[in-house]
């Protein structure tokens, strides 16, 4: 009789630890930047910016609340840098027609912040043109 009570108590304790472990092991994480799956984001800023080979332009400032960014080019390709030079990333002063990430001419690309981040972005125009930029939150 006493052994049955001890066995039952041990089983109850083990089940208690298992139930506690199941609830405790679920991380309470929230997405950093990107919109959670199935939820919408809101348009924050939409602008046009002149870019060209004369200078590199900051097209997005660092923002921890963005969910995505969209860049549209019209007629000319551009080079992009996804980063902040103060963090050791490619500096906007080194962005050239040969350094950076290419976005083709006459294209529109949506950049998910879960992949590309919400840091400072710079653009360099292969030739002078106007691009359209949009940021979502």
Description of the molecule:
The chain is α+β, with helices and mostly antiparallel strands and about 140 residues long. The chain contains 2 helices and 8 strands, in the order H-E-E-E-E-E-E-H-E-E. The chain has helices at about 1-25, 115; strands at about 45-50, 55-60, 70, 80, 100-105, 110, 120-125, 130-135. The longest helix has 23 residues, at about 1-25. About 25% of the residues are buried.
Shape: rod-shaped
Quaternary state of this entry equals single chain
Strand segment count: 8
Give the N-to-C terminal Cα separation: 64 Å
Q: CATH class of the domain at 43-136, please?
A: Mainly Beta
SS-based structural class?
alpha+beta
Q: Write the element-wise H/E pattern from the N-terminal end onward.
A: HEEEEEEHEE
- In the CATH hierarchy, the third-tier topology of the domain at 43-136 is known as Jelly Rolls
Question: What is the CATH superfamily classification of the domain at 43-136?
Answer: Clp1, DNA binding domain
Q: Could you tell me the mean pLDDT?
A: 83
- Report on the biggest sheet: 4 strands, antiparallel
Strand content: 25-35%
Radius of gyration using CA atoms only: 25 Å
Strand order of the largest sheet: 1-8-3-6
Query: Can you tell me the residue ranges where pLDDT is under 50 for at least 5 consecutive residues?
Result: none
Number of helices: 2
The level of helicity is 10-25%
The appropriate CATH architecture of the domain at 43-136 is Sandwich
Give a nutshell description of this structure.
With 137 residues, the chain is of the alpha+beta class. It has helices at 2-24, 113-116; strands at 43-51, 57-60, 68-72, 78-82, 101-103, 108-112, 121-125, 129-136. It has a domain at 43-136: Jelly Rolls, CATH 2.60.120.1030.
């Amino acid at each position: 009789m006493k052994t049955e009570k001890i066995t039952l108590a041990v089983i109850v304790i083990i089940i208690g630890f298992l139930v506690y472990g199941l609830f405790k092991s679920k991380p309470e994480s929230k997405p950093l930047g990107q919109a959670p799956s199935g939820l919408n984001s809101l348009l924050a800023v939409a602008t046009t910016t002149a870019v060209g080979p004369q200078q590199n332009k900051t097209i997005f400032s660092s923002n921890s609340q963005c969910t995505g960014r969209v860049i549209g080019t019209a007629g000319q390709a551009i080079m992009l840098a996804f980063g902040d030079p103060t963090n050791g990333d490619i500096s906007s002063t080194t962005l050239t027609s040969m350094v950076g990430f290419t976005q083709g001419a006459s294209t529109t690309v949506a950049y998910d912040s879960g992949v590309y981040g919400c840091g400072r972005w710079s653009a360099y125009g292969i030739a002078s043109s106007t691009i359209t930029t949009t940021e979502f939150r």
